[in-house]
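Methods, example record. To illustrate the input and output format used throughout this study, we show the complete record for M23 family peptidase. The sequence lines were provided to the predictor; the line carrying structure tokens was produced by it.
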Amino acid sequence: MKNRFIVTITDINGSKQYNIHQYMKQIVLYIVLLVVVIFFFSFISIQLLLKEVKQIEDKRNLMQREYSKINEKNQELQDLINEKTQELMIVSDRIEDLEGIVGLSDRIIETNLSLVERVDLAKITGTQKALVMQLIPNGSPLRGTHRVTAEWGIRMHPILKRTHSHTGMDFGVPIGTPIYAPADGVADFVGGSYNGGYGIMVKLEHAFGFKTFYAHLNQVVVQKGDFVRRGQLIAYSGNTGRSTGPHLHYEIRYLGKDLNPRAFIEWTMRDYTEIFEKEKSIKWQSLLTVINSLSEIQETQALSLKALE
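The corresponding predicted structure is encoded as:
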């Protein structure tokens, strides 16, 4: 009976005895089983939760990596946008400069054209003006800046000592200074005889009745009948003929009449219209109409060739 605890309950029906030790063993067993079951399910639940947490962490890490990639891509795109914006600003500035050169600035402001339309308009107008300046003498026949020793017009002849009409401009340059064609043309005259004091000289015949003369030369690099392009080397300056020192005598003539070369030397794309005011002896309107027609023909031919490619 050791380690046993017996409870006796007596009533009118008699007495009953209960073995508490046996019940305690069962209760403890049930409690242990319950704890084991709880622990087992808790362990399983915790493992499942840990697995879900691990999956969530993996997804979070994956999303963070994707987010980082998207941020990097967005940064690359933003850098590209900034770069293209800068390029667009540069293009816009250059188009604005080109519009200023070809005389379109006021018209662009009035019409509020898009950038593409501005480029097309500047291209068309610039092409027409470039053709004009390719065919008609403009700019200096010399590179760089050179001292003008005699202007066009009435002056005292330095050798004959009498008043006469100086039909060109004189540039004081060293012997051997390169001379370039101011427009497309053909070598109409290449001579080394006296030429009325001109010495060795070249005459270029240009389109629409224009001619240019280059006198007192040292050497000529073109031959009569040669076609020359604007900017092509044609001769070297000298001191031949009736001359008081090394220089280039430069003339521009239109239908046989000598013109003041200064207006043509100072003529540029940016100052395109100034020549029309400075030199009014030429019927510019009809001349430009013809040249613009040629420009349109060139553009049509270029478009046709491009379509065939």
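Annotations derived from this record:
The chain has six helices and 14 strands.
Helices lie at 20-102, 105-111, 115-135, 261-265, 274-278, 284-308.
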